[in-house]
Model the fold of this input.
Amino acid sequence: MDLYLPIAEMSVNAAVIILLGGVVGFLSGMFGVGGGFLTTPLLIFYGIPPAIAVASSATQITGASVSGALAYWRRGQVDVKMGAVLVAGGVIGAGLGQIIFRRLQKLGQIDVTINIIYVVFLGGVGLLMLREAVGALRLEREIAAGAERPAVRLRRHVPWIVALPGRTRFYKSGLFISPLAPLLLGAVVGILTVIMGIGGGFIMVPAMLYLLGMSASAVVGTSLFQIIFVTAVTTLLHATSSKSVDIVLALLLLIGGVAGAQFGVNAAQRLQPEKLRLALALLVLAVAAGLLFGLTVKPQSLFTLYSL
Done:
């Protein structure tokens, strides 16, 4: 069944969009990531204009993150105080990101900008993930051959974060730091959420662990907590300012994503974690390479026109 997307001004096959959402949901459930950084490029590959893909992906992420956040909430693994600071920073960042997004949209360069940012960002993240995955696999082989397993490293705090003024206690996170650090982190993720259509979990989680030094038990739940509110604000900004949210597209993606995530979780339990990380790294690099190839092909129009 074909559906017409009025915002994107194109017809799409509903089954294909649901299947695409299912693939991203499957990968999300398998690799434990939000999936927004894969949804937007895949929509672009399908032919959805990048600005529409970004805004609709953010809408899907809001709905998809609710169930996960509720599950962690019931387990008492959400630091509401830390989450509130991250949300405050995220809202500020989303406002700044929307100003940038709108400016680029008026110049007719938002599509190429989104593609370039994704190529650079996914290329860098993919290479880091690939190095970590290859190192983990090499370590496992050495241990299997009789080498001694290295001692577990304790959490270490970044000196400049500890030195920030106005320190307060975040009990569930096990921290005594200034709220300025998570506020700044939230702002950075908020900007990326608006421009890239990502939830930011695959940035937020490592930053909370290695920069803020949070307790691992509270990281994922708190990250999902802030994703819900920041992506909701992002959706509102896109809908009222840039008018690039296509709710039909977002709903189709959400239907496929919810179903696909269940299969992904089951599949992940049968595979070795190191091999999963290697597969995800290769997938991220493949998406970056595809976007880079698209940037080298001469477009039909050098500018994208939007009704402002």
In short: The mean pLDDT is 78. Strands lie at 2-5, 10-13, 168-170, 175-177. The chain has one domain: 2-147+156-296.
